[in-house]
Amino acid sequence: MITEHTFSYVPGEHETEKASNSYLMSLVALIAGLPLPIINLLAAGMFYLGNRKGTYFVRWHCTQALLAQCSLLIMNSTGFWWSISIIFGDKAISSKYIAYLITAFLFNLVEFIATIYTAIHTRKGIHVEWWFYGGLTNLICKAE
Q1: Angle, alpha carbons 76-41-114 (nearest 5°)
Q2: Cα–Cα distance list, 100 to 26, 70, 72, 79, 105 (Å)
């Protein structure tokens, strides 16, 4: 799921710190805006916009963190609005709803662990690519 590579150059201390912070930003936003799924995406998006003209290492990791938050937004928004429709609507709790909540919880847990792992290794200057998001990031973020 996660692969480590050596980057084409050795990133500097300031680069590794910014790249690591792109992942940590989503964790801080998670704590601040837990019930609202859009908060994580906004935090990652703002950090990306602030660093989009940075070095390739920083841009690459900001892009990967942002892409991960996009899929997390879809997963969490679906669960959030489904829950709202049960609380305030006439829908009942079903086995499909429980299964979705368990799936969403596991998806969030895996993403949380992967984010911490990636932040630690990226801070050390190790280039970490996530399955699916790494390939997408390579397509989006080109070296200059």
Answers
A1: 75
A2: 22, 18, 13, 7, 8
CA distance 54 to 15: 8
Asked if residue 109 lies in contact with residue 137, where contact means CB atoms within 8 angstroms, the answer is no
Return d(Cα 68, Cα 114) in angstroms, integer. 10
Looking at the predicted structure, is the pLDDT value of residue 8 above 80?
no
CB distance 23 to 65 below 8 Å = yes
- Domain range spanning residue 46? 2-140
Q: Tokens at residue 52, please?
A: 């989009």
pTM, 2 dp = 0.86
Residue 46 has pLDDT above 70, yes or no: yes
Encoded tokens for 75:
């997963």
What is the structure's pLDDT at 6? 67
| Nearest residue to 68 (alpha-carbon basis) of 4, 129, 142 | 129
Question: What's the number of domains the chain is made of?
Answer: 1
